[in-house]
From TrEMBL:
CDD domains: PH_SIP3. Residues 11-20 have a biased composition (Basic and acidic residues). Residues 1-23, 713-738 are annotated as: Disordered. Keywords: Membrane, Transmembrane, Transmembrane helix. This is SIP3 protein. It comes from the Eukaryota. One of its GO terms (cellular component) is membrane. The lineage of its organism: Eukaryota, Fungi, Dikarya, Ascomycota, Saccharomycotina. It comes from Cyberlindnera jadinii (strain ATCC 18201 / CBS 1600 / BCRC 20928 / JCM 3617 / NBRC 0987 / NRRL Y-1542) (Torula yeast). The gene is SIP3.
C-alpha cells in the first residue's frame, strides 16, 4: 500500500492560550499536528502493528491472571489476617510468664523493663496490624468490575480481530497461490472477495487500536484506585499525594474521552484512503498474466514521491526443513534511498526483526514469468536470488518502477552518500534484532559480518553485528538485562513509546549505540513503526513552531555501531536514561553533544477543553516536547531563546505551569507529580543563561541544576518550622544565574544602596514603573537602546556616536558624542559657520546590586557663558527595586560652576535656562521609558528587555576619549533660539485655541435640550425655505426668458433649408452637341453663363431643379446597388459553409484521399476566413 494513503491523515489541533496579562490583545491559534502511529500502522497491517497487538494481548492475559490470583488471595486474606492477629496476641501474652513474678528477678528494675518493652511491642504490633488490615470487599469489587467490564470488552474485540485476521491471512494465502491458468474472471471475483474481507479485517484492526487506548486508561485509573483503597486509613497514608493521584487519573480519563472523537475522525480518513488504495481493478486484462507486456511494467516517466520508496508485504519463495520443502512466506519489504531490506515478525510474534540490507546497485531486478505463481519478480545479487510475489499487476509495476528509479538515482549520484551505500550490504548491527527465522532465504540474508568495498577498490569496510551486553559490559553471549538500581545509564525506560512491542524498551537503549538514519531498521520499527513515522513527522514539520533542523542527519547511516562517548563525569546518573530516551525520539533533530539537564511530565493544555499527556526534556539550548495520548503523537522543539519567563501557580491538586514567549503565553500545562517551584527555578536558570553575554557552558550549568535539586531534597527532609535565619541565609552559588550579570567589575556586595542625594543634588523627578529594576536598567543603557539619543533636546540623530562600555578603575563608563542641531538662520553669525554644535555626555555606572539597585551618573560637556565662566550639568539616575515586579527611578541634577569673567548673575541665568532643558529631557525620557515598559508586557520583562535593548557589553580595547569640548553659549544664540521657541509656542497656542473653540462648540451642541434643538432646526428650516424659494423664483424667470430666446432662434433656423444639387458642366453639355467652340458667338454665350446675366435667369431655375432630381436618383441607385450586393454576398456565404461541411464529411468520415478535392477545400476555407474577417465583402 503506498504511503500517500496514510501520510496525509494527520490531525491539526488548535493550541490556543488565553492570558489576560499578555501584551497582545489578539493571539493567533497555533496548530499542533498530531499523528496516530497505531492507526497508520494498522492501515498498512505492518509487522510493527502485528507485533504490538500480539504483545499487548499477551500482556492483557498476564494482567488477567494477576488479577484473578489477587482476587483469590484477597478472599483468603481476612481469615489469614485473623489467624495472624491471634498468633500475635498469644506471643505478646507469653512475653512475661507468671514464674518470673515470684522473686526470681528483681521487681524494681527488671520487671519494669519487661513491662515497658511489652507495652511498646503491643503498640508497635497494633499499629502494624491496623496497617495490614485491608478493605477487601471494596478492593475485590473494584478488581472484579475491571475483569467483567474492561477486560471482557477488550477480549471480545480481540476475539473478533483474531478471527478476521486468521480469515484474511488464510484467504490471502489461497488467493496468492491460485493457478496461473485460472480464468481471469474468476480471479477478479476472488480479488473482490479478498477486498471485502480485508476491509472487515482493517475495521477490526482499527477497533482494537481504539480499544487499546481505552483499556490503557481504564487500567491506569483502576490501579490508582486500587492503591488508594489499599493505603487509605493507614499510618503512612499521604492524603495530599493520593488526592493528586486521583486528580491526575480523572484528568487523564477526561483527556482520553475528548481525543476518542479525534481518533474516530482520523480513523474515518484512513479507512477511506485505504479503501481506495486496496480496491482491485475491474479490468479483466489486469488479472490475465498472458497479456502482460514486459516493456510496460516499468514506468520510465515516474516522478511522484510514491516512486521513490515503497514499504509493503510480499510473498517470498524459500524452503524449510530437512528434506527441504518449498514454501512461500510473507515478508515486509522496503526500498528507500538506494537500500532494500526485509522486516519480519519474531518467532514469538511480539517484536520485529530484520535481515541484511542490500544496496540496489548490487541487485538485478526482473519480471519472473516462469514462476508457478502470478505477478512474481526476481531480485538477484552476487550471493543469492530472491523471488517475490506481488498481489496484483499494479503492485508488481509499482515495485519494479521503484527499484528502477532508485537504481537510476544511485547511478546519477554515485559519488554521493546515497550512491556509496547503494553498492554495499549491511548486516543487522545488533543481534537482539537480527532475524532468527529458519527458512533458507532468511538464513542466507542474515549475516553477522560483511566486508564492503564502498564502490572503491582501495577502500574496504568491515561490518559486524554484536549484542548489547558486549557493548555495555563486555560480556558476550549473555542476554542484556536492565540495571536494577534506581539510577544508571541503562535502567528500564519509563517512557511510553509510539509503538509498544516486546523489545521497544531494548530499542530505546539501542539508540545509545546507533546513529540516526532514514532507512527502516528493526530498532526503529519497534519504536516508531515499520515505516519510522518519526522521520516523516519531523521532515513534514516545516513550521517554525516545530523547529526541526537536521543538519547532522545521515540519510543512510547503517555502519555506525560504536558506543557513544561516555557521559562526562559531571553528568548525573539519574539523567542518563532520559538522555537516551530523548535521542531515541528526536533522533537527528538533536545535537549528539546536547545532554538532558531536566525533565518533567505533565498534561499540556492545547486549548480550553483538550489536554495531552506528555513529557518535556530540557537541555541547555532547547526544550523538547513529546506528547503521547491515546496513540496520538506530537513532537516539538523550541529553543530556550524563545522563552522569557515561566510561572507556576499552585492549585488544590496540581500546579499550573505557564511558559511565556516574547509574544505572550507559549505553552501551558498541569503538573501533578513534580515540584513546580523547583522546575520553575530550573527553567529560569536556563532562560537567564542564554540571555547572558557569555552564556555558561553545559558543564557549568548541570552542577548548578543539581545543586538546586539537592537543596530542594534537603528542604523536604527538614522540619516544616524554619528559623528566621534560614530565610535570611545568603544566596547559593546558582543564584548568580537566577539574575543576570551583564558585566563584571562593579561590586555587588557591601552596598548601602543610597537613594538620598539632596544634600548634593536637586531631586528633579521621581517615577515609578511596573517592571523590575533590571529591566529598566537595560532599557536605558542596553547596547541596542536608543533612549540616550532620543531624549536629548535638539540632537542631530544622524551624527551620534556611542562608545562601548570600558573600565575606569572599578567603574564602567561610556562616552556619547553627538551634535546639537540648530537652524542655519539662527546661527548665521556663528564662528564655525555650521548649524550644529559638538557636544558630549559621559555615563558612568557608579554602583550596582543586580536586580535591586543601580546608580548611574551622566556628565555633560561644559558650557561657557559669553566667553567667560563655565558650568557643566551633572545628572544622577538611581534605579531601585520597590518589589519583585516594580521599581522607582530618581533623577537628580546639579550644575558645577567655575570662576570666570562673567558675572555670577548672568551665569545663574544661563544655568537656569540649561536646567529647563534638563527638565524637558528628563520628562521626555520618562515618557519614552513608560512606553518601552508597556511594550514588555507583564511576564519575562527582564529577558525581553535584554533581548530587545541589549546587554552591556565591555570593550577589551582601551578606549581613549577625545579632548574635552566647551560649548560657548552666547546671547545671540539664546535670542534666536527663544525667538524660534516663542514662534513655536505661538503656533502651538493658536492650534490649542482652535482646539478649545471646537471643543466648546461640540460641548454646546451636546448640552442643549431636545426642545431647543428642534426649535433651532425649525428656524434653520425656515431660513432654508426662504432661500430656496428665492432661488426657485429666479430659476423660473430665467428659464422662461431662455425659452423665448430659444424659440426665436429656432424660428430663424427653420426658415433656412439646405438642398444638395448635382449639375453638369455647361461646357460638357454644349461640346456634346458638336458646337464650334472656337466661334465668337459660342464664347460670348459661355461668358454670359459665367457672369450670371439676367436674360439667362429662366435657364438657371430649371437646371437647378434637374440637379436636385439627379441627386435623388443617384441616391436611389446607390441603395439598390447595396441591396443587390448584400443579397449576392449572403448567398455566397451560405454556399461556402455548405461546401466546407461537405469537405469535412469527405475527409473525416469517408476518409477520401483526393488532391484536387483537398485543394478545392483549402480554397473554400480561405474564402470563409476572408468573409469572416470582412476582406471579401
Amino acid at each position: 500500500m503506498p504511503l500517500s494513503s496514510v501520510l496525509g491523515t494527520d490531525l491539526p489541533h488548535k493550541s490556543q492560550h488565553n492570558d489576560t496579562h499578555a501584551p497582545q490583545a489578539v493571539k493567533k491559534a497555533k496548530l499542533i499536528k498530531l499523528i496516530s502511529v497505531r492507526l497508520k500502522e494498522a492501515a498498512l497491517d505492518s509487522p510493527s502493528f502485528r507485533a504490538s497487538t500480539n504483545y499487548q494481548c499477551s500482556l492483557l492475559d498476564q494482567i488477567e491472571q494477576w488479577i484473578d490470583g489477587l482476587i483469590r488471595a484477597l478472599r483468603r486474606y481476612p481469615q489469614q489476617y485473623s489467624d495472624f492477629r491471634d498468633v500475635n496476641s498469644v506471643v505478646l501474652g507469653q512475653l512475661i510468664p507468671d514464674l518470673l513474678k515470684f522473686s526470681v528477678v528483681g521487681e524494681e528494675t527488671t520487671m519494669n523493663v519487661l513491662k515497658t518493652a511489652k507495652g511498646r511491642l503491643e503498640t508497635l504490633w497494633n499499629v502494624g496490624l491496623d496497617d495490614m488490615e485491608l478493605n477487601d470487599t471494596e478492593v475485590i469489587e473494584l478488581l472484579s468490575q475491571f475483569l467483567k467490564k474492561d477486560i471482557k470488552s477488550y477480549k471480545d474485540i480481540r476475539r473478533n480481530f483474531e478471527y478476521l485476521q486468521s480469515k484474511y491471512d488464510s484467504l490471502l494465502n489461497k488467493f496468492s497461490s491460485q493457478s496461473k491458468t485460472r480464468e481471469p474472471s474468476a480471479l477478479r471475483e476472488d480479488a473482490f472477495q479478498l477486498y471485502e474481507v480485508r476491509q472487515s479485517y482493517l475495521a477490526a484492526a482499527f477497533d482494537i487500536c481504539v480499544e487499546n487506548s481505552k483499556f490503557q486508561q481504564a487500567l491506569d485509573y483502576m490501579l490508582i484506585k486500587f492503591t488508594q483503597l489499599s493505603l487509605q486509613g493507614k499510618s503512612n497514608y499521604d492524603e495530599k499525594y493520593n488526592s493528586k493521584l486521583e486528580a491526575w487519573a480523572k484528568a487523564g480519563s477526561k483527556s482520553t474521552k475528548a481525543l476518542l472523537q479525534d481518533m474516530k475522525q482520523s480513523r474515518a480518513q484512513i479507512e477511506k484512503a485505504t479503501a481506495l488504495q486496496y480496491a482491485p481493478s475491474r479490468e479483466l486484462r489486469d488479472h490475465n498474466i498472458a497479456l502482460i507486456n514486459v516493456n510496460e511494467l516499468i514506468d520510465t516517466h515516474a516522478s511522484s514521491p510514491e516512486s521513490n520508496e515503497k514499504h509493503a508485504w510480499l510473498y517470498m519463495k524459500t524452503s524449510v526443513g530437512k528434506p527441504s520443502r518449498q514454501v512461500w512466506v510473507r515478508r515486509w519489504v522496503f526500498v528507500k534511498n538506494g537500500i532494500f531490506g526485509l522486516l519480519s515478525l519474531s518467532p514469538s510474534r511480539t517484536f520485529v526483526q530484520e535481515t541484511d540490507k542490500i544496496g540496489v546497485l548490487l541487485a538485478n531486478i526482473r519480471y519472473a514469468p516462469d514462476e508457478d505463481r502470478r505477478f512474481c519478480f526476481e531480485v538477484k545479487t552476487i550471493d543469492s536470488t530472491i523471488v517475490f510475489q506481488a498481489e496484483s499487476l499494479v503492485d508488481l509495476k509499482s515495485w519494479l518502477t521503484v527499484f528502477s528509479v532508485e537504481k537510476q538515482k544511485a547511478l546519477d549520484a554515485a559519488d554521493s552518500e546515497v550512491g556509496k551505500y547503494a553498492f554495499g550490504r549491511y548486516p543487522p548491527l545488533l543481534q537482539e534484532f537480527a532475524s532468527t527465522s529458519l527458512t533458507s532465504v532468511d538464513i542466507e540474508l542474515t549475516s553477522t559480518k560483511i566486508e564492503n568495498n564502498n564502490n572503491s577498490s582501495e577502500s574496504h569496510t568491515l561490518l559486524a553485528s554484536t549484542n548489547l551486553s558486549k557493548l555495555i559490559d563486555g560480556s558476550e553471549g549473555t542476554e542484556f538485562q536492565f540495571s536494577s538500581s534506581s539510577v544508571g545509564e541503562f535502567r528500564d525506560p519509563d517512557l511510553n513509546p509510539p509503538m509498544v512491542t516486546a523489545r521497544s524498551k531494548l530499542a530505546l537503549v539501542a539508540h545509545a549505540f546507533l546513529a540516526p538514519t532514514s532507512i527502516p531498521t528493526a530498532v526503529t520499527a519497534n519504536i516508531w513503526g515499520s515505516v519510522n513515522w518519526g522521520i516523516y513527522y519531523m521532515n513534514d514539520s516545516g513550521d517554525s513552531f516545530y523547529g526541526f533542523k537536521q543538519d547532522n542527519f545521515s540519510e543512510n547511516n547503517l555502519t555506525s555501531l560504536t558506543k557513544k562517548k561516555n557521559f562526562p563525569p559531571y553528568y548525573p546518573a539519574h539523567l542518563m536514561n532520559y538522555d537516551i530516551q530523548l535521542k531515541s525520539l528526536f533522533e537527528a533533530s538533536i545535537d549528539p553533544q546536547e545532554l538532558v539537564v531536566a525533565h518533567f511530565t505533565c498534561l499540556w493544555c492545547l486549548n480550553q477543553t483538550q489536554e495531552l499527556s506528555g513529557r518535556c526534556f530540557l537541555t541547555v539550548n532547547c526544550a523538547y516536547f513529546y506528547l503521547n495520548s491515546t496513540g496520538f503523537i506530537s513532537l516539538s522543539k523550541k529553543p530556550i531563546t524563545e522563552f522569557v519567563a515561566v510561572d507556576v501557580m499552585a492549585e488544590k491538586d496540581w500546579e499550573v505551569i505557564k511558559v511565556y514567549g516574547v509574544d505572550g503565553l507559549s505553552m501551558k500545562g498541569r503538573l501533578f507529580m513534580q515540584d513546580g517551584k523547583l522546575l520553575q527555578k530550573k527553567f529560569d536558570l536556563l532562560i537567564n543563561n542564554v540571555a547572558r553575554t557569555k552564556p555558561k557552558t553545559q558543564a557549568e550549568i548541570i552542577p548548578l541544576i543539581e545543586a538546586m535539586h539537592s537543596e530542594e531534597a534537603a528542604k523536604n527532609t527538614e522540619s516544616s518550622v524554619k528559623s528566621s535565619d534560614t530565610d535570611d541565609a545568603p544566596s547559593k552559588k546558582y543564584d548568580e544565574l537566577n539574575s543576570f550579570q551583564p558585566f563584571t567589575g562593579v561590586p555587588a556586595s557591601g552596598s548601602k544602596m543610597k537613594t538620598n542625594y539632596q544634600n548634593e543634588f536637586e531631586l528633579t523627578k521621581v517615577a515609578n514603573f511596573r517592571a523590575p529594576a533590571k529591566a529598566v536598567f537595560h532599557i536605558l543603557y542596553g547596547d541596542h537602546s536608543s533612549l540616550a539619543r532620543d531624549s536629548i533636546a535638539l540632537i542631530d540623530t544622524d551624527q551620534f556616536n556611542i562608545s562601548p562600555w570600558f573600565k575606569e578603575g572599578e567603574k564602567l563608563t561610556r562616552v556619547l558624542d553627538y551634535k546639537i542641531e540648530l537652524s542655519r538662520n539662527m546661527i548665521s553669525g556663528f564662528s564655525r559657520h555650521d548649524s550644529s554644535v559638538d557636544n558630549r555626555s559621559i555615563q558612568t555606572v557608579e554602583e550596582l546590586v543586580d536586580n535591586k539597585y543601580y546608580r548611574i551618573q551622566e556628565v555633560r560637556d561644559a558650557v561657557q557663558v559669553l566667553g567667560g565662566s563655565r558650568f557643566s550639568a551633572i545628572r544622577k539616575i538611581i534605579i531601585i527595586e520597590t518589589d519583585a515586579k516594580s521599581c522607582k527611578v530618581l533623577f537628580y541634577t546639579k550644575f558645577n560652576f567655575t570662576k570666570g569673567k562673567t558675572s555670577r548673575l548672568i551665569t545663574k541665568f544661563f544655568s537656569k535656562i540649561t536646567k529647563n532643558f534638563q527638565i524637558k529631557e528628563i520628562n521626555s525620557l520618562v515618557d519614552q521609558l513608560r512606553h518601552c515598559v508597556a511594550g514588555l508586557g507583564t511576564h519575562g520583562q527582564v529577558i525581553k528587555a535584554i533581548r530587545t535593548y541589549g546587554n552591556l557589553s565591555q570593550s577589551d580595547v582601551d578606549y581613549r576619549p577625545k579632548d574635552d569640548m566647551v560649548f560657548d553659549l552666547t546671547l545671540q544664540i539664546l535670542f534666536k533660539y527663544y525667538v524660534r521657541y516663542w514662534l513655536y509656542c505661538l503656533a502651538k497656542g493658536i492650534l490649542n485655541a482652535g482646539h478649545h473653540i471646537s471643543d466648546l462648540v461640540s460641548r454646546f451642541v451636546l448640552s442643549v435640550t431636545m426642545n431647543k434643538l428642534l426649535i433651532a432646526l425649525l428656524a434653520l428650516s425656515v431660513v432654508f425655505n426662504f432661500f430656496l424659494m428665492g432661488r426657485s423664483t429666479y430659476a423660473y424667470w430665467s428659464t422662461k426668458n431662455s425659452a423665448k430666446l430659444v424659440k426665436s432662434v429656432s424660428e430663424q433656423i427653420l426658415t433656412t433649408s439646405m438642398d444638395r444639387a448635382i449639375s453638369l458642366d455647361d461646357m460638357e453639355i454644349l461640346t456634346s452637341f458638336n458646337f464650334n467652340s472656337s466661334s465668337g458667338c459660342f464664347k460670348k454665350f459661355i461668358s454670359s453663363l459665367d457672369d450670371g446675366s439676367l436674360h439667362l435667369g429662366e435657364l438657371r431655375e430649371p437646371r437647378h431643379q434637374i440637379a436636385l432630381k439627379r441627386n435623388d436618383l443617384l441616391i436611389q441607385l446607390k441603395i439598390l446597388e447595396k441591396v443587390e450586393m448584400e443579397l449576392v454576398a449572403g448567398n455566397y456565404k451560405s454556399f461556402v459553409i455548405s461546401e466546407l461541411n461537405l469537405c469535412k464529411v469527405s475527409f473525416e468520415e469517408l476518409q477520401v484521399d483526393n488532391e484536387a478535392l483537398s485543394s478545392y477545400c483549402d480554397s473554400c476555407s480561405r474564402d470563409y476566413d476572408s468573409i469572416v474577417n470582412g476582406l471579401l465583402f
